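Bumping with the actual sequence this time:
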Amino acid sequence: MGLKHRVSAIARGLVTVAVLVGLGAVPSAQGAEPIVNTGAPVVAGEPVCRERLTATPGTWSPEPVAVDYQWLRDGAPIPDATAAAYRTDLDDLGRHLAVSVVATDSTGAQAFAVSAATGQVARADLAVEDRPVAAGVPRYTRTLTAAVPRLRPRADVVRYRWLRDDRPVAGARGRTYRLGVEDVGHRLRVQATVRREGYRTERLLSRSRTVLHLAPLRRTVTYHVETRGAVTANLAEFRRQTQETFDDARSWRATGTAFRQVPRGGEFTLVLAVAGAVPGFLSSCSATWSCRVGRYVIINQTRWATASPAWNAARRSVRDYRHLVVNHETGHWLGHGHLGCSGSGPAPVMMQQSKGTGGCSFNPWPLPAERWVRR
């Protein structure tokens, strides 16, 4: 029988006992001193998938002896693992490894010993050379693209998720992400989840980037709020919602113009007026609609509360109508006149949509073609 087969036979026959007692011996030739293991074999290296482990044979008496190795997985011999070194693989994950050493002296007498078992073989760590990057201009309507993280070894699978202020954006799981109005002013980044067989799954984050408005800030307009007549609407809500309209990335802010509310004065006055008070600003102003006269941007309380018949017939929300009326009347203050409808597509915000759209769809925001300022 060859030495390799003798080693395997000994390991299979005695490994259970060896694991329990740590060593064993085969009687030596008559009159020869028996071989004794005086120091157990040792496994060196980290018990991690795809890492190299090495065995030292321990110490034996008397010397010299020849040694042969058999690697064990949870106490059972690993086929063909009979070298002093062993590279772990997927079959070893979660298992304990050890090495059995058979010592043979010049007379052919043998003894064996088994090392202490390693801890459970763990998944390896991917080496991260470059983390993901959210590449592109972080500006409303632009698209960011996740640059693939550089890893060693390369990942088998990379999946992406976009985060706004470190919270997942619903449905945003592609490599690219188009920046929307809800992203403006918030921090956006991409998370790459990388997987490779035998390695720990990693979740890598790019640096966060603050999303900017469509146009850089060129001008800040100040305004203050007044009322006319016995206003019953919630004035605090009026102040808050009109400022929300001005701050929205789809509003006149897209031209580079910002609006800031001040306690008094300012460049124009935003007025919430009861219907009967609207004609008091100018005879051509109707009690039915909102109006703009000089520095006054006048919002009709009835329209603010209930929208308009045409708007409601289209089943559009009152909140969107409020965006429309503030954008429309402020647009007049900015120097924009009334516009018509081309017959299809979104209506211009400077169209009198309160009365109808003539075939276009209702739209509370300035169109790209309207985003210019005369003042």
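The tokens above came from a reply further down the thread. The longest helix spans residues 3-21.
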